[in-house]
Amino acid sequence: LLLKLLIAWLVLAVAASVWEKFAILWQIAGGALLLLLIVDALTLPRRDRITGTRSLPGRFALGVGSQVTLTVAHSLRRTLELEVFDGIPTAAEAEGLPYRVKVPPGEFAAVSYEARFIRRGQYHFSAAHVLAGSLFGLWRGIHFVAGESQTRAYPNYEPVVRFAMLAMANRVETMGIVKRRRMGASLDFHQLRDYQDGDVLSRID
């Protein structure tokens, strides 16, 4: 919006350089624009007016997305339009950021996204960056909320654990193992066959 107003004022300046009757209009518009910029800059939220907290898992599995939630609130008496970008580590990937949200007075906004780590290790989420607009939208100020958070990234052991649980539950068919009946290896009668070398004599009728 500020750039659009400046462009309009410059167009008026070009017109004033060609036609003198626009000179006074150009000066009045410049003074009004300057006054508007000063007044609007005073409506920017102060540093302590915007707060935030972060909720994330204590550990991540490599290559698996886990949810991270940023809760942002403010103490202003007007609806505040915010643009949120979390301080994710360089070893992580995230989708849906930056996130734009409008927060009415006395309420809060919960911004959730999925973070996925590509390298194992211990990492820190730095403070989240929040851009807040002024009353007329001519200025935007940056705020740092939520502070630092620590987490770890480990290899994904879920397939191994799931395989072990299936083995303990004796559900081998779920793991892709197919049981086949061996002829003559069961005590239940299935069919008659001829004697073969290696057959157990106690199982011969």
Plain-language structure description:
The protein is built from 3 helices and 10 strands. The protein has helices spanning 2-18, 21-41, 158-168, and strands at residues 50-55, 59-61, 66-74, 80-87, 92-94, 99-103, 108-117, 121-133, 140-145, 149-154.
Key features of this structure:
205 residues; alpha+beta
Q: In terms of topology, how is this protein built?
A:
Blueprint: H1 2-18, H2 21-41, E1 50-55, E2 59-61, E3 66-74, E4 80-87, E5 92-94, E6 99-103, E7 108-117, E8 121-133, E9 140-145, E10 149-154, H3 158-168
Parallel strand pairs: 2-10
Antiparallel strand pairs: 1-3, 3-7, 4-6, 4-8, 5-7, 8-9, 8-10
Helix pairs in contact: 1-2
Helical content (DSSP H or I, runs of 4+): 10-25%
**Percent range for β-strand residues:** 25-35%
Separate helix tally: 3
Radius of gyration: 34 Å
Largest sheet: 6 strands, mixed
* Inertia-based shape: rod-shaped
- What value does the average pLDDT take? 84
What is the number of E strands? 10
How far apart are the first and last residues' alpha carbons, in Å? Answer: 97 Å
Summarize the structure.
This protein is of the alpha+beta class. The protein is built from 3 helices and 10 strands; from the N terminus they run ααββββββββββα. The chain is rod-shaped.
